[in-house]
Structure formats: C-alpha cells, structure tokens
Amino acid sequence: MSPYLRPMATAVTFIEDHLQDDINLADIAAFVAYSLFHFCRVFNQIVHHPPYDYLMRRRLTAAAGQLIQTEQRITDIAFAYQFGSPEGFSRAFQRMFGELPTQWRKRGLRQPQMLMPPLTAAHLAQRSAPNFQPPRLVNHPALTIVGLMTLARDETAVTHLRQQFRQPPTHTLIHYPDFWADNGRPVLIGTKGEAAAPPLVAQTIPAHTYACFALPQAAAERPLLSDYIYQTWLPQSRYRLALPLEIEHNCQLWVPVVLAG
Questions:
Q1: Tens-place pLDDT, residues 116-133
Q2: pLDDT for 178-221, tens place per residue?
C-alpha cells in the first residue's frame, strides 16, 4: 500500500467538507502538511486527477444536484460553490456536462455516471494498486449475443439471471439508456450466436473500438472501476462514450469509445 494513500484520502475529505468554502490548493496542502508542489504531484498520482480539477468537478456535481433538487436561483448556486460569476459557472458546467445549467434543470438527471462521486479510500486504494492498468484499445467486429434479458437494479438481479441461463454465459451486456429507469437498466446475459427463440433474445453490437479494462475480482470493487472509467479516464482521454452500453467478457469490461471532436 502506498504511504501516500492515507494523507490523500484526508485531502479528499477536506475538499468534500469545504465545497462551498473559499479554499485554494495551498489550504489543502497545508491541511495534510505537504508543500504545494509535493501535494499536487502526489495527489495526481494517487487520485488520478490534478487537485484543482477534482475540486471543480466535485463542486459542479454538487451544484448539478442542487439544480434538480431545489428551486434556488442558478446565480445563487454558482456563488455558493465559489464560482466568480454565473457566466463562469455556466461555461464550466457545459464543459463537464455538455449542456447549460438551465438545460440540465429542465431535463433532470438522465445519466448518473456523468456525476463525479466523492472518492473514498477504497477508490484511491484501487487506483494506486500495482496491478491497476490503463485500458487496451481494441477494434472488434460486430457481435451478436443470444441470451436472457432483464431489468436489473443491482448485482443480485444479474446473478439470478446468470443462474437461469442454461449454459455457461460468455458475455454480459449492460445497457445505459439515455434515461435511468426506476426499475433498473437492461442487462443481457448470453453467448455469441445468430438467432434466438423465446424466451431468449438476440442483440447485435456493431463493429467498434472498445476500451478494455481488467475487471476486479471483488464485486464490491466494480462500481469503483465504473467511477474511474466515466469520471476520470474518459474525461482525460481523447475519447468519449460511443454507445450507451458495456460488455463484460473474459474478465474484462469493454466500453465502446470514439475519438472526441
């Protein structure tokens, strides 16, 4: 375990406790008794975000929640989270979420994976583990999966679906629709095939470029990996999500991506 893990977790907690306060990087570094230069270098190494970027993304995520959950004026929310002007807040908000605060409030929360969660010690431990690697990019041909589908709210529903499938499944296809249904998200568990007879269904995934991440063995660590993919790796890469789905195959998580631009 990295000796920097605990102080950086402390720094993250300090940030979380002061999202609406006028703090700067020097204040955070001083709280964990690091020089500013050393703090910025170590924080980036452990958290995989520069500290200012992490602070801004957490403030914007908290502000995004306020826009939906309250009727506060956008100007008041902007100032509450230490943005110098409503215009600056709107520009930063659009860079992170792809739409203006007014549009976000009108549409409501559609894709929870867009939100930057507060990173925990478990997040940091996973990211600083010696075997934690960036993804491989793979060009994969079109793929048809035949199997059983359900709306799953949690991993228990997915496990039950695997038990219902009569042969060892090779693929798990997880959909992220444009909206987040209250009753879950579509999950298809099956094998490569061509056609299906009820109760089986078939779905063809087009040929695409996939970012392939190693899946952690512990089920509890899989949500931590998703947070890394959508809130750290994708924003910092040259890519964006191409299709609203993921594929689990051969102990890997495949995410379809396309060059941003």
A1: 999 999 999 999 998 899
A2: 545 566 788 889 998 888 888 898 988 889 999 999 999 888 89
Confidence of residue 163 (pLDDT cuts 50, 70, 90): confident
Mean pLDDT across the chain: 90
CATH of residue 238 = 3.20.80.10
In our burial notation (b when 16+ CB lie closer than 10 A, e otherwise), range 100-134 reads: ebeebbeeeeeeebbbbbebeeebbbbbbeeeeee
In a domain, 125, yes or no: no
Which residues does 95 contact at the CB level (< 8 Å), separation at least 6?
Answer: none
Q: Which domain holds residue 48?
A: 5-113
Asked if the model's pLDDT at residue 26 lies above 60, the reply is yes
Judged against a pLDDT cut of 90, whether residue 89 lies above it is answered with yes
In a domain? residue 128 = no
- For residue 20, tell me if it sits in a domain: yes
Number of domains in the chain: 2
How far does the chain reach from its first CA to its final CA, in angstroms?
Answer: 38
Q: Check whether residue 98 and residue 175 sit in a common domain.
A: no
Residues near 183 by beta carbon (within 8 Å), at least 6 away in sequence = 151, 153
Same domain, 97 and 37: yes
Choosing from 113, 146, 176, the residue where a domain stops is: 113
